[in-house]
Every structure is written in structure tokens, then in C-alpha cells.
Amino acid sequence: MSQESRDKAIGRFADDSGVRVLLASLRCGGLGLNLTMASRVVILDPWWNSAAEQQAFCRVFRFGQKETTCLTRFCVRNTVDERLIQMQERKEKEIDSVMKEDAGAKASKMGIRDLMRLFGNIRDDENGRPFIMTDNPDPRGGFHADNDHEGYADEL
Predict the structure, then answer these.
(1) pLDDT 10s digits, 51-94
(2) Dmax over Cα atoms in the chain, in whole Å?
(3) Are 66 and 93 in a shared domain?
(4) Positions of the region Disordered (predicted)?
(5) Which of 29, 67, 142, 150 is most buried, judging by how many CB atoms fall within 10 Å of its CB?
(6) Residues 102, 61: one domain?
(7) Domain match, 63 and 91 both
(8) Does 8 share its domain with 66?
């Protein structure tokens, strides 16, 4: 939808009392909108990062909102959506445990594996040392210096 069409649809939603529903994708609903004329958000497409869902809800729950607001998330059991929500909950729990007031004490109780798990899946090398798995399409793996970076070995 063009910016002009989007503005027109939002204006109609705001001004026409006969229009009671505005449909927006999660990605669109999370970008630069002020929807204080709405009071309910229904999420049908969960996102792996719950911050995107929270940001979409914040388009309704903003300064100037006069109504009670609510957020409803739909999820179909035994689908990828359920796994996404489980991943969101696990990530939020892990992050919350580190971000509390006693974060320093909690972080010191967390092992290196616990901290690494926040950044991705962990595997062990042949010596039992943990590393974070990443998707790297370069068959050489890791960082490789070139003419634009310090450490270009061929010029030394």
C-alpha cells in the first residue's frame, strides 16, 4: 500500500464511526503509526522477537489514548506459531533473569554456556569447548581480511 493509501485508510478509520476494524500486518503496524483512535490489538501472526509485537501494541497504547487498551494473541496449537511463542517466552525469561536489580549477582551465577545461549545455539568443539553456531555461507568460515581491512596477510 502506498503512503498516500495508508494515510487515507488510517484517516477513514479515525473519522468514520462505521469503520470499526483496521487490518495491518505486524510489520506495518509496528512502524511509525499513532493509532490512539483504536483500543484493541489482535495479533494473528506472532513474530520470533516479542519486541515487534510490543511495538505494534504501542501504536495503540500511546499518549493521547483515552480508552482502555487490550492485546489479544491467537495461536494454533502444534504449529510453528506455538514454537515461536515458546521461544519468545524462553528468551524473555532468560533476559529478565539477567536484567533484574541484582543482575550482577545473577550474571555471576550464570555459567558461560548460559550467557552464550542468549546469542544462539551452542555446540562443543572436539576439546569440549562451547561455541555459538551461526549460519555462515562462506566455506572458509570466520573472518577473512581483505584489502579494506587491517591484517591483510598477503601484504605483510
Answers:
(1) 888 888 888 888 888 899 999 989 899 999 998 899 888 888 88
(2) 73
(3) no
(4) 135-156
(5) 29
(6) no
(7) no
(8) yes
Contact 145, 156 (CB under 8 A): no
Give the total number of structural domains in the chain.
Answer: 2
- Reported residue count of the chain is 156
Residues with Cβ within 8 Å of residue 12, at least 6 apart in sequence: 19
Secondary structure class of 124 (helix, strand, coil): strand
150 found inside a domain: no
Q: Residues of the chain with pLDDT > 90: what percent?
A: 12
* In-domain check, residue 148: no
Q: Is the full-model pTM beyond 0.90?
A: no
Identify the domain containing residue 87 by its residue range. Answer: 80-132
Residues 6+ apart with CB under 8 A from 13: 19, 22, 35, 37, 38
Residues 7 and 64 grouped into a single domain: yes
d(CA 47, CA 92): 13
User: Nearest CA to 29 among 10, 12, 11, 14?
Assistant: 10
